[in-house]
Amino acid sequence: MSTKGVYTALSGALAQSLKLDTIANNLANVNTPAFKRDQQLFNEYLTANEKPPEVIQVPRVPASIESFYDMQGGDKSYVDTKGTFTDFSQGGLKPTGNTLDVAIDGKGFFEVATPNGVKLTRAGNFTMDGNGQLVTKDGFPVLRNGEPGADPASRTIRFDTGAGAVTINDSGDIFQGTENMGRLSLVEVKNPESLQKTGNSLYGFKQNMAPEMTNVVAPSLKQGFVETSNVNIVQEMTDMIQTNRVFESTQKAIGAYDSMSEKLVNVVGKTSL
Amino acid sequence: MLKSLNTAATGMAAQQTNMDVIANNIANVSTAGFKKSRAEFEDLVYQTQKELGTETGMNSYSPNGVQTGLGVRTAAVQKDFAMGNALVTKNPLDIQIEGSGFFQVLTPDGQVGFTRDGAFKKDPNGKIVDKNGNALQPEITIPPNVAGLEVSPSGEVRVIQGLNDAPQVIGQIDVVNFINPAGLKAMGKNVFTQTPSSGQPQATRPGLNGTGYLSQGQLESSNVNIVDEMVNMITAQRAYETNSKVIQASDQMLQSINNMR
Fold first, then answer.
1. ipTM, 2 decimals?
2. Which of the residues A11, A17, A19, A31 would you substitute to probe the B interface, choosing the one with the greatest number of B C-beta atoms within 10 Å?
3. For residues B177 and B198, what is the distance between their CA atoms, to the nearest angstrom?
4. Longest dimension (CA), chain A
5. Would you call A32 and B42 a contact, using CB atoms and an 8 Å cutoff?
6. Contact at 8 Å (CB) between A259 and A66?
7. pLDDT tens across B95-145, in order?
8. B243, burial (CB in 10 Å: exposed 0-12, middle 13-18, buried 19+)
9. Do the beta carbons of residue A78 and residue A7 sit within 8 Å?
10. Are B75 and A128 inside 8 Å of each other by CB?
11. Strands A202-205 and A117-121
């Protein structure tokens, strides 16, 4: 017998371990504004079709168990991580009463100028820096709409002291007192699978993926609200229990291979009678 | 495996910070001029197991990679400068700013501090000071034997000495405004100091440049809303518990590894 199936069981254990890492990150970010939960997806990785597909040739070949359950090498197939998928469904809206908290109701991302270029975010818990510029919690300027291809530095938003209260209406127009300061840039990404999380609640684009961004036609923003994360604790807990048990099962499979090898080495291969 | 242990630990630490902030808000529910805070979080870096968008063949790119996040961190503790309720005290030296703005007081280290707590007192020399003896700036000294003290909405301080005397102006209380009050640093004792993120203080007469008028005989209560804080406390506590469950699950998985042989 061959014991190489132990590696199949091992790949299962590694996959479950990766899944638990993702669940842990989802749960750690359960109170992070506008956090979107991740999911790991797995598929089987066929090493090789070890046998050509067989046609059962009855009655010329004696029927064996393989003739009925043709697995085409699938019995020795490792688990492969297919990819991490982000669930972009809407989080809840939590009232804060803070004038610079803006939640996106529906599709879209805010544009943020970072030292590494323009990034996207849905976390609308903005603040002001000492110069009156509208910035994220990390101090990156939030951008307003501009001409296509305009320099991001020309699209920052600056408020003046004492020029009145800041209001942001549902379509993203910013007013200080009665002065219109422009409209918050809200972009929609046509191919959300090209987005990649870069930490700090920001999203960038994957390499080789052309960003397909358009301005959201009818934005729906809510001033004085923040979007909560879309992590569902019940679902994560259930997934965690399942992950834990599947992991245990793969350990049992590895243990079974171990005891089989032990028999093979110590009982079958016993030379001194 | 150990990754999820650390990830859950960052989650517990973040909820601990959340709880600390909530506890301070609730502890100061009756502090005059207190402004509540709120802890805000963001996700940490992501570790890439399989590169995203790599070339897998001629003109074909893998549409997704494998990334696991490594937890959460506290991005900011945001102060909320919303108005508190008015508390009528009838004390002539209790002054509330009805809108935005701060009083200036001289702290013991010679710096100017900013406060919204308008519960002022007189020191033995008649100088107007706050609870901790920090003099209100610009300094105002109340002469002895005054019959009445009056603070006008625009900050003019007048005294009446005799029954038939006309009110006499002894000083002017100015308030200051900041472009970003949330960037002020809390020093304790209801005093804030300026930081690069708050911007420079801009002194003005009350009621001008977006500041509020003064109102004598009342105090601003704290803007902490107990119901809000209770709800936040429940979410923080449960999120803490959930993260501890992840640690338990990781521990069990490590245990089953150790029991393999």
1. 0.71
2. A31
3. 10
4. 100
5. yes
6. no
7. 999 988 999 999 988 899 999 999 999 999 989 999 889 999 889 999 888
8. buried
9. yes
10. no
11. antiparallel
